[in-house]
């Protein structure tokens, strides 16, 4: 213990701005534990010297369920409900690459209407998750209005999702072959109305949240992530784009009908927590644009290709990725010709943010910890799978 | 443009670059639109990773997966790498797979090249038993502390109550 | 005894008669003789030149026309002033209105409704005023809860801390003038007494957190200590300008000195600093670091449950009333304002003169306005970080407060205002 402390102190001395007086200053180990109002089902072991974090060790695994092992026991269609559970707030985002991969494996072409519906639902889910994330950011910073407004606006979008799929949060709407059922007739008109109202509400967030000097005092220049570090550490999603990297899978490798949609990739150069909070807000505007365009262009037709009871592909492997709300979600599926997959590997954005979190927390002040931690878009259940 | 409409031109160019540099130390496993998989042995994987990152511009680690093939007595560790800095490779994913013997799966860690694979390698360690030499903290990540069984993603491990 | 009781009318009448019998017995045999014995030895009060003996007292109580001077005399006693107006009852009522206003206004700002169901029927004509009895419901709920003292906690201090808080808040209430002759304690150094009493609060926070014997209250108590002590200095400094211009430390004197210009016109910077430091002293958002929910559960009052929690919240809201009232007294002219109220009189005896009633009305309006401003600020802002908190207090606020003092002295020497305005 003494040796470990001493080694840690030596490493700590290299951090700029951190001054240790006297050799006997101890390092306090704090556990921002799984039962804390500020962490979710996740533990961060923080070693603190005074007010500065010397080292942060993330400790996920409190909600590990063995998703990948479970996938090997069920066939491709049966895997959908439980694969959705790691990320219930963005359920279309976590199922999308799976259905795309299975469709490539089975070699089927999805009808056009299904592609448009999938794009619309994926963008609605993106907004649902970003609003939830903003709301919890408000709780972390002690801003109760920032909690109430996004939750209220989220209800409009959840109503749309419920209209289409029947459930408010866990839609289980995407299946290999299309979507589970068609959208009702009033969906297009209601969606246009809701989404336009939502856009007008988004404009109001700027003055009360982002232009608020106290919010800026807590997030500007806090947790600055440089571009090279972001790429090398494997950051993804808004975290990557807030550090100046223009990388969005919807533009880089378009899937379904994203290549027919006209939208921008939002990037900011600063890479601090403020940029990481600002990028999702701008991205929600782009999502609204995509939804409106898709609603106009949506064709008629079937929405599902019904597969047999036990669809199977050949001996092959597939790697498909998609831009979910938090970043790049990828599935690596190995099939050996059976109806049950041989291996399914989920690569989730939250798990990829763990080294970024550890890197940013080192040398930060303890009071900045909530701001940095939550700006990583970390969802504990998804990281544990 | 790297679209699959004009055949696998860019993919072939990429494979040629790697082949010309490494010769028979690697083997191109398959070439699909925007997906290339290279099989490499554990002795050359660090050099390949450095080459791929510095010369070809694949610098964004996406994931590390371990797959257990009991019939071939190997465990495969597959690294998927994407590119953020080169526009022509933005939609590509390069996969390199390391075949390890099933009874002694040891390989060097790729943290010196890609810092972001640290937690992925820890997960492969605890789920499949692969030891990564040089990893700063190779210990349990997702499994509970009192896990006393074999690594769960091996095919020998069966979920209780759901025998194959 | 029967386990299930049934209602029988005869039983009901019997119980009422039994009650009447016992009340009559006790009153006539015990209470009335005690009254007469006491009154035998106590000198009879003289009201309006008449000696009040017990029979005249009872006549006055039944016949209001003759009894009006009695009411007036009661209103002039210190007891009435301490307990009812402008003392504890007035402050408690104000705090009640403030709690309701806070919950409703905050809810409206956050696209919610706030308390809605308790007391709806009385306000069927105004949907948005429902729920004004919610406080009574919460009070009854808190009264019914068990007071849990954590293991290893210092029980006497743990239970005494909320009481001390109420005592300090009530002491502050006693110093605030709400109308020309209506102040409980009209002392010459009123402002100094206010600051002395304000010094109680950091002490109580520290005692409460220390006595709780738990980690989170400990951190919260230290933070409360840093915050409250750091912000007392700009608070006092910002008021220095007012004292220089008014020439007196007595609160009534300061209000009378704001004639014809209120001090907020002459010393706006001081007013702003006072407002900010008042928010910090109240531990309200954006300064609610000691109670940061997402970081340290509830700060130094984590371990308080049941009525002790209720007492702490009551003390908090009374303190909010006091600091708003102080702001009004020091900077907004106290009770002065154009005459809009008329006097309160019954049966040709004036209980409250027109001037005093007018003063009270304006005082209530102004204090409510400042309190509502505090509530709105709560809705807009997140929480401030501790390093920014301390930097602002010790660096910027003290510097600006000194500038304010120089402005006050300059105003005096340049002859713009004379002492006592």
Helix and strand topology:
The complex is a heterotrimer of chains A (385), B (164) and C (421).
Chain A: H1 2-13, E1 28-32, E2 43-49, E3 52-59, H2 67-71, H3 79-84, H4 91-106, H5 112-141, H6 144-165, E4 174-175, E5 178-179, H7 187-210, H8 213-219, H9 227-233, H10 238-241, H11 249-252, H12 273-297, E6 315-323, E7 328-336, E8 343-347, H13 349-352, H14 354-361, H15 369-375, H16 380-384
Antiparallel strand pairs in A: 1-2, 2-3, 4-5, 6-7, 7-8
Helix pairs in contact in A: 4-5, 5-6, 5-12, 5-15, 6-7, 7-12
Chain B: H1 9-22, E1 26-32, E2 35-40, H2 45-54, E3 60-69, E4 74-82, E5 93-101, E6 106-108, H3 118-128, E7 131-133
Parallel strand pairs in B: 2-5, 6-7
Antiparallel strand pairs in B: 1-2, 3-4, 4-5
Chain C: H1 9-41, E1 46-47, E2 50-51, H2 54-62, H3 64-76, H4 78-83, H5 88-109, H6 134-143, H7 155-173, H8 190-198, H9 200-211, H10 215-246, H11 251-257, H12 263-266, H13 268-281, H14 293-296, H15 307-331, E3 344-346, E4 349-352, H16 354-380, H17 386-413
Antiparallel strand pairs in C: 1-2, 3-4
Could you list some keywords that capture this structure?
heterotrimer, B: 164 residues, alpha/beta, Beta Polymerase, domain 2, five-stranded mixed sheet, two-stranded parallel ribbon, 3 helices, 7 strands, 29% strand, globular, C: 421 residues, mainly alpha, two-stranded antiparallel sheet, 17 helices, 4 strands, 65% helix
Task: Walk me through this protein's architecture.
The complex is a heterotrimer of chains A (385), B (164) and C (421). Chain A is 48% helix and 12% strand. Chain A is of the alpha+beta class. Chain A has two domains: 2-59, no CATH class; 67-384, Cytochrome-c3 Hydrogenase, chain B (Orthogonal Bundle). In chain A, strand 2 (43-49) and strand 3 form a beta hairpin. The radius of gyration of chain A is 22 Å and the shape is globular. With 164 residues, chain B is an alpha/beta fold. Chain B has one domain (25-164): Beta Polymerase, domain 2, CATH 3.30.460.80. Chain B has helices at 9-22, 45-54, 118-128, and strands at residues 26-32, 35-40, 60-69, 74-82, 93-101, 106-108, 131-133. Chain C has one domain (81-112, 145-413). Chain C is built from 17 helices and four strands. Chain C has helices at 9-41, 54-62, 64-76, 78-83, 88-109, 134-143, 155-173, 190-198, 200-211, 215-246, 251-257, 263-266, 268-281, 293-296, 307-331, 354-380, 386-413; strands spanning 46-47, 50-51, 344-346, 349-352. Chain C has a two-stranded antiparallel sheet with strand order 1-2. Chain C has a two-stranded antiparallel sheet with strand order 3-4. The chains are: A alpha+beta (385), B alpha/beta (164), C mainly alpha (421). Chains in contact: A-B, A-C. At the A-B interface, helix 2, helix 9, strand 6, strand 7 and strand 8 of A face strand 3, strand 4 and helix 3 of B.
């Amino acid at each position: 213990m003494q040796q470990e402390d001493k080694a840690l102190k030596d490493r700590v001395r290299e951090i700029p701005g951190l001054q240790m007086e006297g050799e006997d200053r101890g390092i306090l180990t704090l556990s921002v534990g799984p039962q804390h109002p500020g962490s979710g089902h996740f533990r961060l072991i923080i070693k603190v010297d005074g007010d500065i974090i010397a080292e942060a060790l993330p400790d996920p695994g409190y909600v590990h369920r063995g998703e990948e092992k479970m996938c090997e026991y069920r066939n491709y269609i049966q895997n959908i409900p439980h694969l959705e559970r790691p990320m219930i707030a963005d359920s279309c985002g976590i199922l999308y690459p799976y259905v795309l991969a299975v469709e490539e494996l089975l070699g089927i072409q999805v009808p056009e209407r299904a592609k448009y519906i999938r794009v619309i639902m994926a963008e609605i889910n993106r907004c649902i998750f970003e609003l939830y994330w903003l709301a919890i950011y408000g709780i972390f910073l002690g801003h109760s209005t920032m909690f109430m407004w996004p939750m209220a606006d989220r209800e409009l979008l959840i109503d749309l999702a419920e209209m289409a799929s029947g459930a408010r949060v866990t839609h289980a709407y995407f299946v290999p072959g299309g979507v589970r059922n068609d959208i009702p007739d009033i969906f297009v008109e209601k969606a246009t109305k809701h989404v336009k109202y939502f856009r007008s509400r988004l404009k109001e967030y700027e003055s009360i949240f982002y232009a608020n000097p106290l919010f800026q005092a807590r997030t500007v220049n806090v947790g600055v992530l440089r571009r090279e570090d972001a790429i090398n550490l494997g950051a993804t999603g808004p975290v990557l784009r807030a550090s100046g990297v223009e990388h969005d899978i919807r533009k880089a490798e378009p899937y379904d009908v994203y290549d027919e949609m006209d939208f921008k990739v939002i990037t900011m150069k600063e890479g601090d927590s403020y940029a990481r909070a600002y990028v999702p807000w701008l991205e929600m505007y782009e999502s609204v644009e995509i939804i409106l365009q898709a609603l106009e262009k949506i064709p008629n037709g079937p929405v599902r290709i019904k597969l047999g009871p036990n669809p199977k592909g050949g001996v092959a492997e597939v790697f498909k990725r998609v831009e979910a709300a938090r970043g790049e979600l990828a599935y690596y599926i190995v099939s050996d010709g059976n109806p049950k997959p041989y291996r399914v590997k989920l690569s989730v954005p939250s798990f990829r943010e763990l080294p970024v979190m550890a890197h940013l927390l080192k040398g930060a002040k303890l009071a900045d910890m909530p701001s940095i931690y939550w700006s990583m878009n970390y969802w504990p259940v998804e990281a544990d799978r | 443009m790297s679209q699959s409409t004009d055949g696998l031109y860019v993919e072939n160019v990429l494979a040629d670059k790697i082949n010309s540099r490494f010769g028979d130390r690697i083997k191109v496993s398959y070439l699909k639109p925007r997906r290339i998989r290279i099989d490499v042995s554990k002795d050359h994987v660090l050099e390949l990773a450095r080459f791929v990152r510095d010369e070809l511009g694949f610098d964004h680690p996406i994931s590390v997966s371990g797959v257990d093939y009991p019939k071939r007595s190997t465990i495969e560790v597959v690294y998927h790498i994407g590119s953020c800095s080169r526009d022509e490779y933005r939609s590509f994913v390069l996969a390199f797979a390391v075949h390890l013997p099933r009874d002694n799966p040891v390989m060097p860690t790729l943290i010196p090249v890609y810092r972001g694979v640290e937690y992925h390698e820890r997960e492969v360690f605890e789920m499949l038993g692969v030891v990564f030499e040089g990893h700063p903290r190779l210990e349990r990540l997702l499994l509970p502390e009192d896990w006393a069984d074999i690594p769960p993603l091996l095919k020998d491990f069966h979920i209780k109550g759901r025998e194959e | 005894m029967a386990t299930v009781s049934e209602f029988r009318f005869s039983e009901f009448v019997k119980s009422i008669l039994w009650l009447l019998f016992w009340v009559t017995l006790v009153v006539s045999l015990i209470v009335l003789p005690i009254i007469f014995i006491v009154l035998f030895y106590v000198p009879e009060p003289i009201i309006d030149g008449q000696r009040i003996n017990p029979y005249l007292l009872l006549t006055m109580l039944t016949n209001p026309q003759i009894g009006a001077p009695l009411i007036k005399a009661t209103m002039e006693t210190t007891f009435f002033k301490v307990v009812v107006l402008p003392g504890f009852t007035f402050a408690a009522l104000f705090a009640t209105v403030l709690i309701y206003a806070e919950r409703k206004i905050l809810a409206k700002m956050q696209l919610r409704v706030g308390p809605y169901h308790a007391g709806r029927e009385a306000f069927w004509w105004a949907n948005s005023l429902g729920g004004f009895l919610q406080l009574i419901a919460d009070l009854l709920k808190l009264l019914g809860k068990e007071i849990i003292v954590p293991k290893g906690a210092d029980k006497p201090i743990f239970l005494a801390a909320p009481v001390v808080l109420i005592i300090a808040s009530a002491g502050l209430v006693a110093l605030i003038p709400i109308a020309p002759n209506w102040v409980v304690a009209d002392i010459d150094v009123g402002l100094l007494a206010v600051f002395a009493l304000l010094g109680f609060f950091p002490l109580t926070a520290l005692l409460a957190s220390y006595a709780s014997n738990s980690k989170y209250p400990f951190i919260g108590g230290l933070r409360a200590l840093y915050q409250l002590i750091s912000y007392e200095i700009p608070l006092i400094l910002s008021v220095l300008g007012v004292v220089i211009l008014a020439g007196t430390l007595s609160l009534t004197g300061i209000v009378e000195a704001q004639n014809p210009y209120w001090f907020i016109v002459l010393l706006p910077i001081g007013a702003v600093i006072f407002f900010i430091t008042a928010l910090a002293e109240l531990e309200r958002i954006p300064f609610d670091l000691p109670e940061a929910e997402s970081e340290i559960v509830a700060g130094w009052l984590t371990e308080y449950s049941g009525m002790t929690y209720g007492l702490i919240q009551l003390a908090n809201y009374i303190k909010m009333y006091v600091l708003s009232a102080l702001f009004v007294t020091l900077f907004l002219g106290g009770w002065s304002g154009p005459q809009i109220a008329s006097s309160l009189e019954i049966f040709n005896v004036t209980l409250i003169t027109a001037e005093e009633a007018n003063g009270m009305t304006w005082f209530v309006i102004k204090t409510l306005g400042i309190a509502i401003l505090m509530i709105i600020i709560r809705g807009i802002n997140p929480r401030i970080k501790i390093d920014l908190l301390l930097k602002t207090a010790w660096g910027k606020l003290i510097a600006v407060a000194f500038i304010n003092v120089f402005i006050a002295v300059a105003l005096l020497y340049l002859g713009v205002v004379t002492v006592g305005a």
